[in-house]
Design a protein that fits this description.
The complex is a heterodimer of chains A (273) and B (435). Chain A is of the alpha+beta class and 273 residues long. Chain A has three domains: 97 residues, OB fold (Dihydrolipoamide Acetyltransferase, E2P) (Beta Barrel); 78 residues, OB fold (Dihydrolipoamide Acetyltransferase, E2P), CATH 2.40.50.140; 76 residues, Ribosomal Protein S8, Chain: A, domain 1 (2-Layer Sandwich), CATH 3.30.1370.10. Helix content of chain A is 19%, strand content 31%. In chain A, α3 runs parallel beside α5. Classes of the chains: A alpha+beta (273), B alpha+beta (435). Chain B: GO terms for molecular function: mRNA 3'-UTR AU-rich region binding.
Amino acid sequence: MILRSGRGRCGCSSGFRDISCQATRSSVRMFSVLKERVGEILLPGDEFCCGPQDTLPLTDSGKSERLVAGPGLRRSGDRLLVSRSGVLRHKEPNKFWIESQQRRYVPAKGETVIGVVTAKSSDVFKVDIGGSEAASLSYLAFEGATKRNRPNVQVGDLLLAQLVVANKDMEPELVCIDGSGRANGMGVFGTGGLLIKVSLGLVRRLLAPRSDLRADLEQLFPCELVVGMNGRVWVRAGAVQQTLVLANLLQSCDAMTAPQRQQLFRRLQQGAF
Amino acid sequence: MKDTPLSNCERDFILKAIEEKKRLDGRQTYDYRKIKITFGTDYGCCFVDLGQTRVMAQVSCELVVPKESRPNEGIMFFNLELSPMASPAFEQGRQSELSVKLNRQLERCLRNSKCIDTESLCVVSGEKVWQIRVDVHTLNNDGNLMDAASVAAIGALCHFRRPDVSIQGEEVTVYSPEERDPIPLSIYHMPISVSFAFFQQGTFLLVDPCEREERVMDGLLMIAMNKHREICSIQSSGGIMLLKEQVMRCSKIASVKVSEITELINKALLNDKTARKAGGRCGFAESIPQERITALKTDQTAVEMTDVGETASSIVQTAEAPPQTVPSPSVPVPGVGQVGEVLRNSWGLEEEEEEEEEDGGEGSGGDSVEELTKMDVEQHQEVKSRTVDVVEILDSDEEEEEVVILYPETTKKPKNTASSSGQKGAGTSRKQKKK
């Protein structure tokens, strides 16, 4: 199985956007408070605050720890606010984030997304990435593109690109090259496959380093997947029927637990498709 | 807001799949998606789910002056709304091309086919006729809105009951649902539309296209038929050239589909009728997987109760005192009972057969009136294990009788199990025996 996608800029596993990796120097208390609630369902509006009035247990050292707040957690003063509903997760040594199952995509810097070209103007493409606004992609942001050498992109093509500007005040901007000027898998793709829309949670599960879902998919049949962090997945397998099966599978295992999913895959392997 | 654009690769893939006779969701070329028809609590409200496409139709009526050219016929008015709820491509208020097209097709399918007897809607020729208005709202668009809308509209029309009217000389009396049972409309036949999508210049056809297939199709053929194999309307859009054999083949397929769908509608209507008769949970509540319905009040209805006083007081005396937290329904004066608690708002619906007519908060003053509805005699359930105030109205004639059972619960307010036609409850005493 060939898998193409990008990694977030900050170097941690996909799911952490640069802008939300805010390291906070907090007291040890906050850390332990968060640690206790790992695995619980939190709602927007929940907060973790610790001020200087909190007492420190005697056994803990007085050193403060850095705490990395991932997606869904936001820092406001000395409080940590939850901005998304979902389950609190923790990764050693100090990363916390909220895992949610939403389908609406909010563009964030550094993420690799699949976009559909909607318009071509003199020097910029307009690309729809599923956010509130269409993103712009300059002609020169392709590998080996110069003023004379225009990239071969038509309206309606699929692109894998990375967001370089994504905040609530400006229109998002994409590029198809990485920092050193190489394409690195990005650019136009997509003949012969099918594009489907899934939830963001499924996308993160597909891209996680040791993903059960990917392992199960590998057992089925050879296929090619391009995963965009905006909830779009492009699939292609040997035959049309297999591609359809794969697309329907991915859409249905969005809402399944791991055992249910494995049961489904097993039934598929035994039965004919 | 614009809808997400369809990429070239999706378009190519869907066309290639269709050439290999494969559809995106695994259906065969002539298969419909799963159709689910439910009815709401009011008469004339119908929800239709066609796969993910969801549509609601509501029928209402009003007395108006008839048209001058047709003084003894009633008026039918159709309106289909594309709500932004259905798709980001639909904008509120704007009459898009699709909306005009769907409205026109719905009108042709239902009005021009004369499926409703408009002369029976006349009250006073030249002065008063009934105007029947059908509003169809789209709730979710996953393709093939036309078929879903036609099924919803005809289902709602079959389900609807209009108030009874009597004329004495010059006087016209319109009876409210409590006084006399409302009457169903007289419907001759049920026209249902079936849509065929054509691809590759008419080479391939699909029945019931989903949204992505609709975006890729070349043209659409819509045939409205009834189960007696009469074609009510044919419409072809998209500018494709169709051969005579293709149209004949489509009409044969349509007749098969229409008879299946008509069966489904009739079954759903029958289920709804039995559920209402049994006083069971039917209507809106069934279609939402939820335990609570908030805030549906019914008006006070005057009810005839001749000997309720004696029966009630005898039962009250024999029953044990209810727990203190909940006041038992008191019968201060024969014929008037106070049900429910003031200012308590718990609408729990545990296991009773009730959905909407809980008037809980009507207890202020002594003016509240018990609402009685009727259940079948065969269904007398004396639940002796609980402290129950059973108020039974036994009519002398053999028609269906309904019983109101007031349960003062320990945790909740007393509930009355009213049949779902609670508003028309008392008026059903003279209901004709249903077969």
